[in-house]
Amino acid sequence: MATANSVLANDGAKGPAPPRLASVYSEVQTSRLNHPLPLPSVLKGPFKLVDGPPSSAAGNPDEIAKLFPNLFGQPSANLVPTGSDPSDLAGGLRIGVVLSGGQAPGGHNVISGIFDYLQERTNGSILYGFKGGPAGIMKCKYVELTPDFIYPYRNQGGFDMICSGRDKIETPEQFKQAEETAMKLDLDGLVVIGGDDSNTNACLLAEYFRQKNMKTRVIGCPKTIDGDLKCKEVPASFGFDTACKIYSEMIGNVMTDARSTGKYYHFVRLMGRAASHITLECALQTHPNIAFIGEEVAAKKQTLKNVTDYITDVICKRAELGYNYGVILIPEGLIDFIPEVQQLIAELNEILAHDVVDEDGLWKKKLQHQSLHLFEFLPQAIKEQLLLERDPHGNVQVSKIETEKMLISMVETELEKRKLEGKYAGHFKGQSHFFGYEGRCGLPTNFDATYCYALGYAAGALLCSGKTGLISSVGNLNAPVNEWTVGGTALTSLMDVERRHGKFKPVIKKAMVELEGAPFQKFASMRDVWALKNRYISPGPIQFIGPGSNDVNHTLLLELGAQA
Amino acid sequence: MATANSVLANDGAKGPAPPRLASVYSEVQTSRLNHPLPLPSVLKGPFKLVDGPPSSAAGNPDEIAKLFPNLFGQPSANLVPTGSDPSDLAGGLRIGVVLSGGQAPGGHNVISGIFDYLQERTNGSILYGFKGGPAGIMKCKYVELTPDFIYPYRNQGGFDMICSGRDKIETPEQFKQAEETAMKLDLDGLVVIGGDDSNTNACLLAEYFRQKNMKTRVIGCPKTIDGDLKCKEVPASFGFDTACKIYSEMIGNVMTDARSTGKYYHFVRLMGRAASHITLECALQTHPNIAFIGEEVAAKKQTLKNVTDYITDVICKRAELGYNYGVILIPEGLIDFIPEVQQLIAELNEILAHDVVDEDGLWKKKLQHQSLHLFEFLPQAIKEQLLLERDPHGNVQVSKIETEKMLISMVETELEKRKLEGKYAGHFKGQSHFFGYEGRCGLPTNFDATYCYALGYAAGALLCSGKTGLISSVGNLNAPVNEWTVGGTALTSLMDVERRHGKFKPVIKKAMVELEGAPFQKFASMRDVWALKNRYISPGPIQFIGPGSNDVNHTLLLELGAQA
Any idea which positions bind diphosphate (chains A, B) (predicted)? Predict the structure, then answer.
């Protein structure tokens, strides 16, 4: 049912995605069309690829070697300038590009980068855009990209030039379909723009094509606002910078409101389910009173009561200082990181699959002691949600829980208790926010616009140089664009395996927030001051010209600084 | 209870509002500090005030004349340049300023404008900022404003320089308190920055001081993001421009997301309870598929079923075109404009005050037929909310109803029905948003920053020229700043009376969306195209430099254009 819907959805997106009309653009959109996109100097002149040493895997190299017999061990490659002129241009290449998964600002610029590379560095090449994500590859739905078609999307947000989709190429039949499309279009190469799953899929496709002795090569590009696809060679996934700056603008505004009004606690849930990079970056940009980092909550095996108590403690201390307001950041995936919540949900799924929920609550006797305790601790609305709203598989829908509202309710209860005990004399009013969709499709920042263009240009260079199974990697991002490094990293080198249904599956491990890493350490060193003092920063709206317009996000700067 | 809370809240806001630390400002905040604030040319040289003809009232002039025996009929005044030098500077004026009601971007610049006027055009004047709104006047809580104190707030959002509050000066005791404060501080004048209620209050205070033969004069300034305090002489309230641009940025992002993803209908509720100016302006900026204007819903006596059907019809037509996505704007006050909802709520308040809600639903028999019908039509969650959540007076809390979620639920039900009837074959997924607090405290746009500074500077000029009971009015806003007109409009001329508790109360009528006005007419002429075609515009983040940075909002341009 869910799958059927999602296929329908892709069809909907693919079919009649109407082309943009630059004639109805806003002044800012129009001004962005001709915003110059500087290239790293190595991409400006003649260059050659230099291979590094053979690569291994992020974990279980033996299993990865078995899964990728043709690609495992291949070196990463770096572009270096050469003296010679690119007089013998590659000719007549046929390249495909696909957007995979959720939107991230800058995707259109990756496509522009590939296109411009082909225009400027090859003769008579063609770029096909597969429509609606990987399903477009399987069904051979595509559009031939032309300068006129691409132009209105330059430096614009969204993925609507060719739209995206969440399908995967998984079954033998689906690989066969992809093969047929590659043959039909006589593809020399394919660029897959996506997150960890999509890049894993890209690598499987590269392996498949190589094994079939096909000429079609596959290059990945790191995309996700969540920021959880990165490693030493790929220092950032695109879209993270823009999304965090959009959320931080809103958080900064809400902070100014909180301090002006003096009577609201704003509980802000931020997109980012699997990792808490967005919340951490927004915290570094805005200095909230509290920010939860899921990875820390998990590492410390914190309970929901711990989380509630931490908030309540800060609220009580602030009340003593006369501050009955504040701003609290909550990663979307917070409760996924709380072990006892996972346990409760697992037990509920089991019980609800077999039993009815009787009104007298006899079913609760099947819960383990700790889970029953937690269940009783939850607000009534959340209890009902857990029992009533289930997905087509009968499972509790954790993603539907509005954590920010749940926490407001639990904090209210705890504060009332403390008030009765004489330990709290303030007043509390919670306001809930969820910042998500607003950030996925904004106009890309100067950083994301330039970074994406370089990623696309590099992907073109890698494909034309005969590479496959690499992810486009642009580094040295804290230096001026001129000095950015460009290359491709072996996708297999990012991989580990997971055991699923008795089989090893390759996965690019999600990059979680490192508790020893520079961004978290900086946050941890400052949060106690932020909790009680008011050190709010309002980053303001993203600027494209003038002060602040070329700033890079804190996470990237701190990580690269720590590496240096 | 509610009142007690609100007083507590104000106390909280007032007490320990910590001063800003420009040292922790973001780059954009810092860059705004020295953003130049051009003055209308008439404020740059020597000027004199020229009185217009005697004024009347917006309605019931006889009653207004009785309520304001000292002020009624006084002329509005315009500033005109004179040849003479302002060699005889007024000296030693003592002026107070207060922020009243909800935040609006630009409030700090009004204060900067007053301050700079006093610095530049008088000798040795003092400006007091009353803390936490009108309560600060009554309790004589104030801070003496100095250049160092004011500087970090220049062009910054929020009201936290002196904070605001929602108290009113109403009872004889409260007027006496205000009098005592004015005497104690030896005030020559007071500037009240607020909305319709606050300016009404300002006028009552002006009348009171005049009647008491006190020297303290009172000048108002038009503030509200809602845009519902305006008239011919006062073409805009400040904050509306910035707030609408912030909301429109988010709406534009969500639109790009909708068209990229192809599977969500985004229901966006926008702040603005009493009037729908914000929704109208955001619609003109972004071209949503649907936008409801409360004033039209009321004029056409539409029902909730009408509203639901309109949405459902558009969704069905779009599905036939292959579009299973869209964006719908809903003013916060929508259901306040639906007559049958008002009727139902009135009946519920009556019934719930006297009866218990029995589980068998016998209480429902007391509802009138139409109200019962409507009640049964509502989603279960809303029914429960209506019955369970009541304010301290026992009344249904209409403001807590999340209209966007209610409409999603009702549209789902209607679509399922049509699906069964074979009239709809699309798929629908609703996403709800509320954009409110994010917009009240953003960094003011160049327009709001300049407009507010001129309003403040003009208020200083009016006070120093001996005027009272006027609202600072800056006009010709669609021309370059140089050509803006400056003056003061008699507050009594904006007033009408309302009958409350058997007495006439003066009110500045809220300016509702005029269905014959140019902004609504433009919207009405385009909405059918927007509904089915995709004409989305993404205004992008507010820019302070470069393209778009000096744009004025559509509402103002259209209204002024229609006047011209």
Answer: 102
